[in-house]
Structures are given as structure tokens and as C-alpha cells.
Amino acid sequence: MDNDVSRAAPYWSLPPEEVLHNLGSGAQGLSGGEAAARLARCGPNRLSGARRGPALHHHLRQIASPLG
What we know:
mainly alpha, elongated
């Protein structure tokens, strides 16, 4: 995988083939072996679990500041 991807043009401006090449993938996705190797090397693809407050607080914040 290309480590200079962060310095390259934004991915949405590139042809799909170039994006896949930069990610070390292809149109059919990763092989099972490559997926397992990346899982072992990088861990599961998860977002960090920022703890959210109760849903009511979220809705009240949206009402108070609909754009924020």
C-alpha cells in the first residue's frame, strides 16, 4: 500500500483504478489472505467509540443549535 496517499490528490478526484491501486486493492476487493493479513497487521476497522450521552441531550442540542 502506498504510504504517500495522504500527500496525493484527493481520492474523489482520481480515476477509480488509481484509487484501488493506491489502496493495494482491485475491482473485486481484497483476497481472503490479504484481508486476513491486513486484519492481523492493522486490527479491525472500527471507529473509536466516543461515548455519547443520552439521545434526549443530543436532540436538545440540535434544537438549540440546528447547524451545530
